[in-house]
């Protein structure tokens, strides 16, 4: 089984954290839990033989986000950023901050909240589409990305996908595919590719 490190954020409920774990296990991955309270030396021990890192959603960029991104880049690991995790990928290597959207247009309790248009890149290749319907639970956004290519935007032009086009899987998405696995084919392709590529 391929080992995947999952960042567990203290602000998330046990239910939300469990969704990420179950998403990895659904595609036969073995989960290694990294807690945002872990000391760096313990994080390094846990990362020793993993093949990928999942940066989960949360409230703000945590102290481990940038460290885990740098580790994935330095060790050529798969990297999957979800919601806050994607924002951390976009902000990595910059002094930029998150920007308030100013309304709740991207915070909607719906199975599908809006569309995302995909440009050429890994995610488009994985899902085999140039447009996705996605859910949406965020009030902040990023304006740009320094170290990862922007490869998808919402229909109102917010950044929704960032990726490293030279790696087989280093992708960040602004939505929550772990909550869509029971009804959305693209979300299943995304997690399957992350775990098993």
**Through-space gap between termini:** 12 Å
The low-confidence runs, each spanning 5 or more residues with pLDDT under 50, are none
Give the overall silhouette: globular
The CATH architecture is 3-Layer(aba) Sandwich
The overall pLDDT, averaged over residues, is 95
Order of adjacent strands in the largest pleated sheet: 2-1-3-4-13-12-11-7-8
Please give the radius of gyration in angstroms: 15 Å
Strand percentage lies at 25-35%
DSSP summary, beta strand count = 13
State the name of the first-level CATH class: Alpha Beta
Reported by name, the CATH topology is Rossmann fold
Instruction: Supply the number of helical segments.
Output: 6
Give the name of the CATH superfamily.
Class I glutamine amidotransferase (GATase) domain
Q: What is the helical fraction, as a range of percent?
A: 25-40%
Order of helices and strands: EHEHEHEHEEEHEEEEEEH
């Amino acid at each position: 089984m391929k080992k995947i490190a999952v960042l567990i954020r203290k602000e998330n409920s046990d239910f939300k954290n469990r969704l990420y774990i179950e998403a990895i296990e659904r595609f036969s991955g073995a989960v290694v839990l990294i807690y945002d309270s872990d000391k760096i030396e313990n994080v390094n021990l846990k990362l020793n033989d993993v093949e990928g890192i999942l940066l989960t959603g949360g409230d703000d960029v945590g102290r481990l986000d940038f460290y885990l991104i740098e580790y994935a880049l330095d060790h050529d690991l798969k990297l999957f950023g979800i919601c806050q995790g994607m924002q951390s990928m976009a902000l990595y290597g910059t002094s930029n901050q998150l920007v308030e959207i100013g309304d709740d247009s991207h915070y909607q309790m719906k199975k599908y909240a809006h569309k995302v248009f995909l440009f050429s890149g890994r995610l488009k290749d994985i899902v085999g589409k140039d447009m996705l319907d996605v859910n949406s639970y965020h009030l902040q956004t990023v304006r740009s990305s320094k170290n990862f290519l922007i490869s998808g935007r919402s229909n109102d032009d917010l950044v929704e996908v960032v990726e490293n086009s030279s790696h087989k899987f280093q992708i960040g998405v602004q939505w929550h595919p772990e909550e869509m696995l029971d009804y959305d084919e693209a979300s299943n392709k995304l997690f399957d590719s992350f775990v098993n590529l």
